[in-house]
Amino acid sequence: MVRHLRVQFPGAIYHITVRGNRRNMIFGDDVDFRKFLEKFEAAFDQFHIRLYLFRLLKNHFHLLAETPIANLSAFMSKLLSGYCIYYNRRYHHSGHVTQGRYGAKLVEGDEYLSKLSRSVHLNPVQTRQAKRWIRRIALTS
Prior knowledge:
Elements: E1 12-19, H1 30-47, E2 50-56, E3 60-67, H2 72-91, E4 103-106, H3 110-140
Antiparallel strand pairs: 1-3, 1-4, 2-3
Helix pairs in contact: 1-2
């Protein structure tokens, strides 16, 4: 199946999502989080990305970022390759750490931006509530 080209233009704001391969964890402990944040900071500085918010969870992460010079692909390549190399060396793995391509949806309009911000901030809470709800159903069945 053909992959569509990413829409990139100066000043674009994206909701970026990355999930662990087969929904596995991509952050095993605080050391992994710190290493990712180091790579994250270096890539942001190099590519002049404007970060509005981010949420790192054990098996995925969300970014809300603006690309003043239309370089999202280069930024994500640097970030994800650097982290993948670190992760595979640390855990003696090979291959992909993340599942497929990263998601990058254009954010258009203040209303969508506001809803997206709430959703990303509440993601861990919603996930825990969903797990509790699923467990409750399993116990009563």
